Amino acid sequence: MEMVEKLTLITPEILLFLGAIIVAITGLSGSRALRGAVPFITAIFLAAAAVLTQYVYANEEALTSSGLLFPRLGGYIKTLTCVVGIALVALGSGTIDRAYERAVASGRTRFNPLRVMRGEYHAFFLLSLIGVMLICNATDLIWLFLALELSVLPTYVMVALSRNSRGANEAAIKYFFLGAMSTATFLYGFALLYGATGSLVLLDIRDQIAVLLSSEAGLPNFALIGMALSLLGIFFKISAVPMHVYAPDVYEGASTPMTAYLSIVPKIAGFVAIILLCGTFGWAGRHEITFAGETMVREGMPDSIQTMLWIVAVLTMTLGNIGALLQTSLKRIVAYSGITHSGYMLIGIVAGTTAGIDALLFYLAAYALGNLALFGVLAGLSRAGHEVENIEDLAGLWRKNPRMAGFLALAAGSFVGMPPLIGFWGKLMIFIAGIESGEILLISIAAVNSAISAWYYLHIAGVPVVRAATPRSETVVATNRLSPKIVATLAGLSLIIVPIFTTSLYEYARTGMDVSELEVPSSEQTLAPGNGHDLDLMTEESSA
Amino acid sequence: MLNSSLFATLSSVSAGDGHAETVVSAIPEAARPENMTWAGLILLLPAISAILCGLYACLGIKNRLPGWTTVLALASSFVVVCMLYAGHEPGQPVVIHLFDWIDFSWGSKGAFENVTANFALYVDDLSLFWMLFVTGLGTCIAFYATEYMDEDRGKGYSRFFGAMSIFLLAMSALVLGDNLVMLYLGWEGVGLASYLLIGYYYQKTTAIDAAKKAFIMNRIGDLGLAIAIWLVWFNFGTLEYDGLFQALNLYLPMAEDGTLAGTQMGDAPLGWTAYLIPWFLMVGAFGKSAQFPLMTWLPDAMEGPTPVSALIHAATMVTAGVYLISRTYPIFWLEMEQGGYALATVGWIGGFTALLAATIAVKQYDMKRVLAYSTISQLGYMFMGLGVVQTFGACFHVYTHAFFKALLFLCSGAIMHGLAGQLDVRKIEGLRMAKGWKVVTWTMFIGALWLSAFPFTAGFFSKDEILAQAFVQEGPGFRALGWIGIITAGITSYYTFRVWFRVFGGKTLRIEPGPEHHGDASSFHPHPPGWRIKAVLIVLALGCIAAISSGYFGIGHWIKGMVSNSSASWGMPLHWHEGDTPFFGGDPHVTMYYVSGVVGLLGLSIAFYFHLYNRKLAITLEHAIQSRMSIRWIPRLLEKKWYMDEIYNATVRIPTWLCAKLLYLFDRLVIDGILVGGIARIPMFIARIFQPLQSGMLQGYATTMAGGVSLIIAWIIWTMSKGGG
């Protein structure tokens, strides 16, 4: 594929990169108004990137020849990323550097470009989103690795910058070290994959694995370990067991808008990477392989990887739930609930059919909307200048601010999966996909977990209504910042309104996995090095 | 006047053109014109009016704006119905698609592979017939209510008219909907509106209780309807009337001579569940139309404002059951063709209810309650008509009853309004002599004449259609049923005029003010109704008079034409067997006019004698009955409404309550105590075990992660070493 064509596909990212530079410079400006405009500029660039994405992905020809595993996946994911990004900017606008800006405004400090961080924060914000979007365009392991790192490295800094406290620094350190460890894990996995297949290109690796699996010797053991390690490393991004341990501490340390970021964006990144890797490992469609005159049909991933995913899904949803039960800190509850939701979403991966991934992509949007509503409310409240962190702080909120308490309840209801909220449809589709692929036990476990999770979600919804205000919660008031409230309102309402268009959103999510007529990438190609046999490799869209 | 040639014309009306013909009419497929979406205004206008009334309430508007908005919306809705009627081709149903609503399909999307219920209107003669009087009467009564509800101007006024608009919206959806789901939507919607309006005076406990009672009793019927709808889909694979009728065409006798069974009967007979559909539909109809045993809610529903009683609980909503059965009549017909007794049951329940309610009405003192029981009784007649395969008579009676019963209710509303809530017939006398009450006196007289089926009134013709058919149609004990109907007609005549003679008759004006009057009773003067109430009363009385012409001129043919061009007569032979079964030596449709006329006059005379001419004798007679142990239970039984409420209490309420208590105990002890308490502790317990792992130490986390990864890798290597992979 030509370089120019490759660049055409990532024009939204290039645009955002420009935005990152502009934002970084604007943030250093001596003019307070210009510095204040930083979030707006960020949002405008994100909106432009979202629009551009639609144009880029309307170009069928470029997609067909792109050599991507799932050529259309980016259309949905990039749009989702940009929309979520705009909401997150709105959520956080005005919180970064708040104390410093106030000191400058009141004349207590003179403006010093070296001390201001707002521009940096938003530049990193955009860079991280670029990373997420670039993952969709990964054609080889190197690209995938670099994009994953680009998505995660800025977040270490952002956690530290997000608020002026030692807790945030501690969280950033923990996040960085554990993140580095996970990177090492999947990088090692990538290396083993390269060793086993002799290629870095995802499509080649996929075909090679198919050939190896059908060969007499079978897949080499270290290839399997490579697969397992690369998935396990990426589980860090979606905070799945056993890489989930960092989540509660880091979420708690970061500021509320940053917690919102951490709970949504890395999950998108992680799941896209997992979809790509699993596609490489085998379930992207049903393969009919003609090898030495014989036609073989192969479906799905190697059994042990499939089983590993199954076990990880069960452990993730269960441990996440159990962890959330005893928490009183809202952010820790959200962290654990995020772990649980990753478990549910892994069902989509385990189901592995196109329906499973469609459902997963839909679920990502549903989950993001719920989180935005929840964090919109939390970011819109403050307790004597501090963030609202404890669930007890919400007591009596219903009387003071029924609208916010209502949105909180909606978000909680959506997380539980209460019809007709969007969370219900997400869960329904995931469960249906699971049942269709025969994972009855897994779905039963998920259903039990879903019931258990009602305990703490209903707590979040109920405490503002039922519990009488305590002296501590009396001090909780709505902040005068408008943007979090707008986010809470829009996201909260969309939890009810979007389900009306469930079918349309789901159809849109489906386009991401549309592999029909695109995926005949390597027919008539000699694959196994040295054996000289011609392979006719055809793929069809597998149906549930 | 009673010459036989007149009766010959009358009988030809009843017999219609179907006298010698045995043509079986197939159910025509509906046309689907594209350019008729304007008919959606019938539903849209009340909806807008309801929203506006809600807005008025929010804005705290204190004038009559909500009332006029509603009247305007309903009147426009009526005009649209008339336009629809004007452009309607008799016998040709039309489906007007408004928008997609419920539309699931799978497989090859054929029958049984879709659940389709779109927001569409099924316009045929039956639904048009219904809509004409629903919207027409709705407009009149809303107009009446603008004055009647005057004292509540403000929030209550908006609430009242908002609920009225919701009612008209729901009723239109019920009647016009093109599928059973939309009918169900409307069915529940009118139930909601009825609930809201019965409980309008929500400060009164009795009103709230009555509202709840109506709602809960209706749930029983609604369950039946829901099951019936499900069974319809299960057996015919569609919920839309058009599809349903086309499916039924395959089963109903279709040959010209009426002998051959439907083409499908041989090769793909319907399952036994298809023959359950009429029974469940019946339950739904009996709930909404207050038939035995689901009748007790209707008298209590009189707690609502009187215009509501007139519109919802007399003229329109309670006839929804009749509409339901008329609409799905081919299913009933099919069941009967197969030797079932669903229709006979409908007839018998109707006849029994008619008699039961009429006997109760005899001993009630509250004017509105008398009218409520008479409504139940008249509804019983309608079901009797459906049961004895006289759908035309049933629908005709719905129509005449709607007018005269609405008129009677509105008159009693005027009395209640003017007399500070007084409705007790023992406490009012000689009202005709009060100033400004002429219109009420004589319009109510007209209403009473019509209700008692006085010869040559509209009620007389419509009722006789039903009674005569009972002697024509062959069925289990239908002749006895006919006699029950005749006896009931006499009782009806008696209790109706008992009220009128008591309230308006008498030599002196004597009024005890009602509970809403505060102050000295002797200074009380009834305040006569205003021009709007009078105007509506006169219009309705004129409507009643005009309906007489149905007996003489073309109107009878008009209604008959509408009914027989619809599903109410589709699929059955238009053959009434007249003359085959003589009644008093003649065609029942002729001789019945004499018999029922005599019986009605008898009832009227008794009422005249005891309640106007010689009231002392009535008191003496009552004392005489009271002093005899052997018979004094009879009036008591009637006054206590056959102890229906008490029987319900003992057979339904107390067992339910006991059951609920038991379940509550089970829930507290077993579910909450052992299951929830126990199971909920397990995750908590596990959580406590794992909590130390979340220590906050970086090394600890790294170890956990590395440990987890190592475990998984070790497990993979182990499976591989066992030869898997």
Summary, kept brief:
With 544 residues, chain A is mainly alpha-helical. Chain A has helices at 3-9, 11-26, 32-36, 38-56, 60-64, 73-92, 98-106, 118-136, 141-162, 166-197, 202-214, 221-235, 246-253, 256-283, 303-325, 330-351, 354-379, 397-400, 402-416, 422-436, 440-466, 471-474, 482-497, 502-512; strands at residues 286-291, 294-298, 381-383, 386-387, 476-478, 525-526, 534-540.
Structural commentary:
- The complex is a heterodimer of chains A (544) and B (725).
- Chain A is mainly alpha-helical.
- Chain A has one domain.
- Chain A is built from 24 helices and 7 strands.
- In chain A, a hairpin with a 7-residue loop joins strand 6 and strand 7 (534-540).
- Chain A is globular and about 75 Å long.
- The two termini of chain A are 33 Å apart.
- With 725 residues, chain B is mostly helical.
- Chain B is built from 27 helices and 4 strands.
- Chain B has helices spanning 4-15, 41-59, 65-86, 125-148, 155-176, 180-198, 205-236, 241-249, 263-267, 277-288, 297-300, 306-315, 320-327, 329-337, 342-362, 367-387, 391-418, 438-451, 458-472, 478-504, 531-552, 555-564, 588-613, 615-627, 633-639, 644-690, 698-721; strands at 94-105, 114-123, 428-429, 510-511.
- The radius of gyration of chain B is 30 Å and the shape is globular.
- In chain B, helix 18 (438-451) runs antiparallel to helix 20 (478-504).
- In chain B, the strands form 2 sheets. Chain B has a two-stranded antiparallel ribbon with strand order 1-2. A two-stranded antiparallel ribbon of chain B has the order 3-4.
- Chain B folds into 2 domains: 4-511 and 527-603, no CATH class; 644-721.
- Mean pLDDT of chain B is 82; it is low at 1-23, 255-261 and 574-579.
- The A-B interface holds A 173-174, 177-178, 181-182, 185, 218-219, 221, 224-225, 228-229, 232, 236, 241-243, 245-246, 248-249, 302-304, 307-308, 311-312, 319, 321-323, 325-326, 452, 455 and B 680, 683-684, 686-688, 690-691, 693-694, 696, 698, 700-702, 704-709, 711-713, 715-717, 719-720, 724-725.
